[in-house]
């Protein structure tokens, strides 16, 4: 008697590409979150010291630009460094494949065996992979990188710049657009609401529980605004 078998789903086949897209999306949400928290802390702090709209706008805009450019530069440096390391590893792999092809074939066979193939199958697979594209096979199996999908540092930098800017625009507009007596309330409420959303999204994109992420995110933002507002109020009262 044969058991009815369920059809295997093929979601896993696309896991790599989908996972990478989710990582990008999550990085964008976290970048926006940074923009919201740092700019909100900045403008609320200045609002503690002054009612002057032009000062608030200047401070908020400077914070937006400084933050987005620092995020972009940091991302550019970190991705470039990683890319350089990956390129160097690929170059070394290329050299080894040219100078000691036998050892490299044995190495690939051993790594495929460690992944659960029998000696015979691993040998056969290693030979076929080497014949087709030895460098790509070693890059994937040995280094865990895809030579066609090295992250572009400029793309990463732009993504950071844009996501931080989008986040920073919210507290900036919330502090300068409403009439003076509403501006703090509007800013605090809209920032905390936005932090609920970014906390929830980043947790869901990372397949983590949403509630603790939302609570931590909102508390972090509230703390940032509370501390800078207190500092701004003290400085404003002291007439600095
Ligand atoms: Zn190798």
From TrEMBL:
Protein name per its UniProtKB record: Membrane protein
Transmembrane regions listed in the UniProt entry: 156-176, 182-202, 214-238
PANTHER family the UniProt entry points to: FE(2+)/MN(2+) TRANSPORTER PCL1
Keywords: Membrane, Transmembrane, Transmembrane helix
Organism: Streptomyces echinoruber
GO cellular component: endomembrane system
InterPro entries from the UniProt entry: Ccc1_fam
GO biological process, one term: intracellular manganese ion homeostasis
Membrane topology: Multi-pass membrane protein
Gene Ontology terms, MF aspect: manganese ion transmembrane transporter activity
Location(s) in or outside the cell: Endomembrane system
Lineage, highest ranks first: Bacteria, Bacillati, Actinomycetota, Actinomycetes, Kitasatosporales
